[in-house]
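ok so I'm stuck.
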Amino acid sequence: MSPKFRSVFDDVRATYQPRTGRESNLQDDHALVGPRPASVLMNLGIPGVGQYREGMKARGMILTAVQAVTVAVFVWRMSELNDSRDTYVTETDRSRVQHDYDRYERDNRAAWAAGIVAGVVYVAIQTELALLRKPGTQAGLSLSAIPLLPLPTVGFAVRW
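replied:
not stuck anymore, here's the structure
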């Protein structure tokens, strides 16, 4: 072993402080910045419950309510789609077929849009929990706008 390497090794060993007792527990508490695994699993079943379980109760209730509304709108639009499809399929009057088909097509587009919105809200809630940083840590939640057009845009940040 070279003398220079030995000198560096001795310096590192002299400055090394092993963690023992209460000090290591305090440092480990500050190292935990993300959500607990149980919160993530609960959030997959009912969006917003993970945030509620992590201590952000108002945020969790708001997110759960938003997801419930989007799912309710999707279910309502699917019901309307089924009704308009049944009306279109059973229509025998040739003068009303085009009108019923147009209604069916409009309801089909609305149901797709409602389903996509519900899915986007679900993914956004899961992403928000994944980016969650507990209060008191250095990192925080920060979402930025991604420009969709090559035009100059103004960014924004959301901090809960």
